[in-house]
UniProtKB/TrEMBL annotation:
Keywords: Flavoprotein. The keyword Flavoprotein applies. Residues 12-145 form the Flavin reductase like domain. Its cofactor is FMN. The keyword Flavoprotein applies. This is Flavin oxidoreductase. GO terms for molecular function: FMN binding; oxidoreductase activity, acting on the CH-NH group of donors, NAD or NADP as acceptor.
Amino acid sequence: MRKSFGKQTFMFPMPVLIIATYDEHGNADAMNAAWGGIHDTDQIGICLSPEHKTVKNILALKEFTVSMADSSHVAQCDYVGIESANKVSDKIQKSGFTLSKAEKVNAPVINELSMCLECRLVSYDESSGYMVADIVNVNCDEKALTDGKIDIKKVDPISFDPVSHGYYKTGDRAGNAFKDGLALR
């Protein structure tokens, strides 16, 4: 027997993305977004409503970064989501995050979050809030690498549960993509 929940925004896992921008004066901002993922081969899609300061910054400068929130920084990542830069100008400082400038785009990298996508805006639909951006570069702190590759266990990303409004750690490896299914051929 199955239970129906009707039309809902339930999907698991939903990555917790921290979007970071500069405004036209070089002031940094960041926000938490749980409505995003890969849009195409080299693009990301994110739903962001237009009233966010971060969205205004993206529309002005056309560049931003997307970091993977991790379990070591849950409070800071949640804070940048619940506090508005429209009201609190020193939100980044209050979060405790430190910043560096991205290598390929004019946007900040949050030093404490090990994996970051550097992005350039392609389109934004204000009515739906859907944003598409090219991924220009992916950077990762060397401490989150194993044998020169990004190690998901070391990145330690969290996901958002839209049913219980919880953050969850990524689990253990369950199998091998493009290999395990070959046994059923």
